[in-house]
Write a structure and sequence with these properties.
heterodimer, A: alpha+beta, Rossmann fold, Dna Ligase, domain 1, eight-stranded antiparallel beta sheet, 20 strands, globular, B: mainly beta, OB fold (Dihydrolipoamide Acetyltransferase, E2P), four-stranded antiparallel beta sheet
Amino acid sequence: MMKPSKILVANRSAVAARVIRALKELGIPSVAVYSEADKNAPYLNQADDAVFIGDSLAAKSYLNEDALFEAMTRTGATALHPGYGFLSENPIFAQKVIDAGHVFVGPSPQWIEKMGHKTQARDFAKSVGWPIGSGSELLPDDDQLVIEMARSIGYPLIVKPAEGGGGIGMLVAQNEDKLLSAIERARSMAKRGFGSDALYLESLCLKPRHIEFQVIGDQYGDIRVLFERDCSIQRRHQKIIEEAIAPGIDRSLIQVQCEGIARGLRTLGYDSLGTVEMLYDTAGHFRFLEMNTRLQVEHGVTEEVLGIDLVQSQIRIALGERLKDVLPDDLSPQGHSIQARIYAEDSKRFYPSPGKLQAFEMPVGKNIRVETGYCVGMDVTQYYDPLLAKVIVHAPNRSQAITQLIAALRQTRIEGLSTNIEALIQIIQSEHFTSGNVHTDLAMEIVQQANRKRA
Amino acid sequence: MAVEQLKSEVTGSVWKIVASIGDDISPGDSIMIIESMKMEIPVICEDGGKLLALHVKEGDSVAEGQNIAEIEI
């Protein structure tokens, strides 16, 4: 492996800590960067260098390309790991990194571009034979045409930003009366959130499960699908509980998807870590949702059941190693792993709750893994997403994993702000979750029911 | 007629003001949207009323519990 002299981690908090740890284990020096708000973050001490890159506002720091390039020059870093969020799925930035003679730890920019554009990604999925739901092309300005496109798909449907992500700007239209106002609102959110107001329509899948497949490819055309995760437990289209493997789905169905995904990505040589997200409907059909061309927040549950390190693998592949040298030949999921995301938000409505961490005690135990970028005394600010920590358990089976996760969450003590821990426990303990009867609206249903009981 | 102060439920910044002074707000409609931790939180006027004053403008920082608008109900 051609080792670069140093890798800069262009991110913050839990993912920065995770990547710095992987680099340390690989024996590669790391450079951490930080904004004003993160100057006391504990992982900064773990990196070989820590460079201040600007004010707390993301645009002034973690999205500040000039500051990142300057930090690379100053520290002699020759590669950049983007983490997730921020610049991780920006093909222009990735190309700039490469043009400057550095390694971008991610796929070729063409892949980021293709998959970042949702209708192009749908077209790709269709072209390689992946299942897709009915949907539209990009919406024209002509309202009458849009109404006709919507009629041909049928209601209810969902309006989605073409260049979006994270559920932002995704709005449901139950019927024709609601369509144009949903489009108008989605356009304004998309324009602001992603700089593009391009939208498309998709038929709405009712009570689906969110099943995603971990993929990894090298620069020599080798590709593998590392099974699935179930990420159905979400609030506002963002995941809060994830598990591997998906409960109650016939393994032969999963196998068919894994093979189809590997075939599709092999045809065009996907060359990094990525995730193919699918919806799984109540009739047992999969449909393509999107592909993320980066490390996922929930990569840990796959690592636990397969006994591998995805971050190290991603870095080694970016540095030119072959997949066959990076991962064991024979991998099959062992036991069950569940992750809960602890957010700085209240347990009733999931409203953000910035504040100072007066207490921050994470659970410890043999099969408990915690990923965080915070420590006691730190301010959790309004500038970034509310993720405080990820608590991951791995047990011989799902019911033991559930018991361990509940115990771990009860052991967690966070003071100084509100957290979603109570909601996480309510959800994990619910009959629907324990029986594996999950779907993407379940978390909100359980929490609303608990709120009604309380009232 | 009573005048009620509408408070922000979160610490964040004002992303968008969606109502104008003098508007009759229907119960459950939003007056503004506050952004915090990459989430958009609408400020909803539960009972409805006439929007008399706005104490903040777009881009302003707001603290939890801060008065942000006056409603006549």
